[in-house]
Amino acid sequence: MRKHVTTLVGSCLVVIAASATADDNLRISGFASLVGGTTLDGDGYWARLPDAAGQYATGWDFQTESRVGLQGIYTIDKKLSLTGQLMIRGVNDFEPQMEWLYATYRVTPDASVTAGRIRLPVYHYSDYMDVGIAYPWLRVPSDAYSLALTNIHGVSFNYNLDWDVGTTSFKFYTGQQHTDPNKLITAIEQYKTEQLYDDSGKYRGVRDIRTTKDYEDLKGIVVDTQIDWFNVRLSYLTGKEKFTYYAEGAGSTPLFGGAWADTRFIDVSVSADYGSIFAIAEYNDYDNIYSSWFTSLVYRTGNWSPYVFYSDFKGVLRFIAPGGVTASFEDGVTGSLDDKYHSIGIGVRYNLNPRTAIKAEITDFTDEGDAAVFIDKDRDGNSDATAFAVSLDIAF
After folding, report:
1. Can you list the alpha helix ranges (DSSP code H) found in 278-354?
2. Under a CB-based contact definition with an 8 Å cutoff, are residues 184 and 48 in contact?
3. CA nearest neighbour of 131 among 71, 61, 182
4. Structure pTM?
5. What is the distance of C-alpha 365 from the center of its chain?
6. Which of 101, 163, 293, 358 pairs with 176 at a CA distance of 20 to 30 A?
7. pLDDT confidence of 250, banded at 50, 70, 90?
8. What DSSP string runs through 342-384?
9. How far apart are CA 137 and CA 178, in angstroms?
10. What range defines the domain where residue 232 resides?
């Protein structure tokens, strides 16, 4: 049923877009990214993006990260507007899905209230992490963008303050979300503990499990300050979450989980955009789950923007023994970390025109934890990889 509903909504939005010129109150825009990648070394590479996108096992793959977005904003009057964003993702077999749908009421020129299905604004690039043309890299450095929740049903209050030498925007929001299944966490658990092998030891896939993640009483604040070429952004989120794990064939009986726990997520970014140089560093901490960060330097010269980045992820669980799942499990207090890895990437962006860019990127991924991040054919818990990807990003 939900597939039919999302398809119907998508079709309606396309019809609306076709007739947009007939209504001055309706503004239609969009973006698209055609992304292709392959693994140069290792059993496979996974960027661990939302919906479990970014998986590259064998050969070239042009589906897993490719996407199209279509956004419509209808201005009802001078104060009230309605926004919807439809996403078509390769990882979801190009099935149209309405990801944003919210109303905005402008209280004053500097203050507004938004209500509906909105983006969870925890990261520096949260609002446009799908819009490839909006940033220099082929993808946002995914080691530091690993939260398994991107959108919520909620309300936000937004206020912009102009204080002569700079501007500061404030966002206060609250909301909730239920994900069943949570595709990213499900895939993470499958590769960590549920990889399958035949009698000869040959890898043959992962076990069919399901995880869910519920989020309630989410309350957050974002403070974003811009002073000339310098920017600092602070994000703080609290709430409750419930994780549940269902084994293959278990139906509605969970194997473990199902209890509510308090949660907290903090993100800090600092960036400088000065002349031909763009530099950024971003750090986040997910209480009792992980911490991650990345830093990057970009040099712009004409239409070219070569770049380099380093990203790092460190989990807190200490369950899987060194050598992977086949080496059994270890004490959760004194054991070594399950999830610990980092990436080094170099790439280049070339602007064909102000709305179109092509990019190429090589990523060297190092797995330092005991649990496999992706395909682990030799079952030693090590999933080091080197990957290469190209993209065509457009805005329209």
Report:
1. none
2. yes
3. 71
4. 0.93
5. 18
6. 293
7. low
8. EEEEEEEEEEEETTEEEEEEEEEEEE-SSS-SS--TT-SS---
9. 31
10. 2-395
Q: How confident is the model at residue 253 (pLDDT cuts 50, 70, 90)?
A: confident
If residue 155 lies in a helix (H) or strand (E), which one and from where to where? strand 151-162
CATH assignment at residue 307: 2.40.160.10
User: What is the number of domains present in the chain?
Assistant: 1
What is the rounded distance in angstroms from the CA atom of residue 69 to the CA atom of residue 99?
A: 10
Phi, psi of 224, rounded to the nearest 5 degrees = -125, 115
Q: Which two tokens stand for residue 175?
A: 């909301």
**Cβ-Cβ contacts under 8 Å for 26 (sequence gap 6 or more):** 16, 20, 72, 73, 74, 75
- Pull the structure tokens for residue 285: 């901490």
The DSSP element (H or E) to which 17 belongs, if any, is helix 2-18
Scanning the structure block, which residue is given the tokens 């329209």?
A: 396
Tokens matching residue 112 = 């507004």
Q: What is the mean pLDDT of residues 297-322?
A: 97
Backbone angles phi, psi at 4, to 5 degrees: -65, -40
With contact defined as beta carbons under 8 Å apart, do 181 and 211 qualify?
Answer: yes
Q: Give the three-class secondary structure for 70.
A: strand
Using alpha carbons only, what angle is made at residue 134 by residues 132 and 136, rounded to the nearest 5 degrees? Answer: 80
For residue 269, give the DSSP letter. Answer: E
